[in-house]
Design goal:
By secondary structure, the protein is of the alpha/beta class. It is built from 11 helices and 10 strands. The strands form 2 sheets. An 8-stranded parallel β-sheet has the order 8-7-6-5-4-3-10-9. Strands 1-2 form a two-stranded antiparallel ribbon. The longest helix is centred in the first third of the chain and has 18 residues, at 95-112. The radius of gyration is 18 Å and the shape is globular. The two termini are 20 Å apart.
Length: 329
């Protein structure tokens, strides 16, 4: 397997936010922004029900901020896929129910913190309400399946995360058939960028997410992580969310999602080492600590970062994909 190497010309971006703020992103090793996950759901795969109460969700989010999160991602509808791991997958909820869960958490967090707040939603109606209530960006796992969401984002001129997937929660894992997973995901994300542009969304506002675990099974996820440079060629910052996912559990032999912290940190370090501008995680404190060490290591060997001829001295070891990973996200 050919693995990604650090980009020889790291890209940097600045995405405008409301109230004169901006979100600076950097693809250099160890400089990834940490997005803390706040699931206000009863059925998310790892922490469903833990923060369904608005007060607990706000406390959790503020704790992630204190641990060093650079931005927070609030989700009120689970999108876990159907399959051998999660059974029938997540049930879709109405826009009204999604907003009922989300509104008190978003409103209180906007009152208490200036951190960028992302809303993880597929629905234009929810996105509009969230932006009106103070959200800064929209994280769309459906890649603009809802035309209303595209119109809302274009009108707001806010940052948008487009995540690669295929189908929906019930069908996506049956659609996970690839010849070259990195090339196909790149091409499908390029098509999503084109759809966004056609809807009036500024390309310079878009962040791309490879969608690990979404219409990806087993070693698809490792192959994609190993070749983030293919996606970086699209010229947009990359957000990588591997945290606690089942493909890490199978590789590490850990069944319980909440115990996959070390595996998740390893994946976040790899992603940061190979160009991710944002890593989306449940476990902020250990990720922040590990990235700080990685950043110092990168700064201690600047010639290795800059000179392609010396990369071998600091490149990560060859990734060995464990056998038997096929067939699960």
């Amino acid at each position: 397997m050919t693995l990604s190497r650090p980009q020889t010309q790291p890209r940097r971006w600045s995405l405008p936010l409301p109230a004169g703020r901006s979100l600076a992103l950097d693809g250099r090793s160890g400089r990834s922004r940490v997005m803390g996950i706040v699931n206000v759901t009863p059925d998310s795969f790892s922490d469903g029900g833990d923060h369904l109460d608005p007060g607990r969700a706000v406390d959790h989010a503020l704790r992630l901020a204190a641990e060093g999160a650079d931005l927070l991602d609030l989700g009120a509808e689970s999108t876990r896929p159907a399959g051998s791991t999660y059974g029938a997958g997540a049930a879709e909820v109405s826009a009204d129910e999604e907003w009922r869960r989300l509104a008190p958490v978003l409103t209180e967090l906007r009152r208490q913190t200036d951190l960028p707040l992302s809303v993880d939603t597929r629905k234009g109606e929810v996105a509009q309400r969230a932006l009106d209530a103070g959200a800064d960006l929209v994280n769309d796992v459906s890649c603009l399946a809802d035309g209303e969401l595209a119109a809302v984002v274009a009108a707001a001129d806010c940052p948008l995360v487009l995540m690669h997937s295929r189908g929906d929660a019930a069908t996506m894992q049956r659609l996970a058939a690839y010849g070259d997973v990195a090339a196909e995901v790149r091409d499908e994300l390029a098509a999503a960028l084109a759809r966004a542009a056609a809807a009036g969304i500024d390309r310079e506002r878009v962040i791309l997410d490879p969608g690990l675990g979404f219409a990806k099974v087993g070693d698809d996820n490792f192959r994609l992580l190993a070749r983030l440079d293919v996606l970086a060629a699209l010229g947009r910052p990359l957000l990588v969310g591997a945290s606690r996912k089942s493909f890490l559990g199978r590789a590490s032999g850990v069944d319980e999602p909440a115990r996959r912290v070390a595996a998740s940190v390893a994946a976040a370090l790899w992603a940061s080492r190979t160009g991710a501008a944002v890593v989306r995680v449940h476990d902020v404190a250990p990720t922040v600590q590990a990235l700080a060490v990685l950043r110092h290591l990168a700064e201690a060997a600047p010639e290795a970062e800059a000179d392609p001829g010396t990369k071998a001295a600091v490149a990560p070891p060859v990734l060995q994909v464990a056998p038997g990973l096929e067939g699960t996200p």
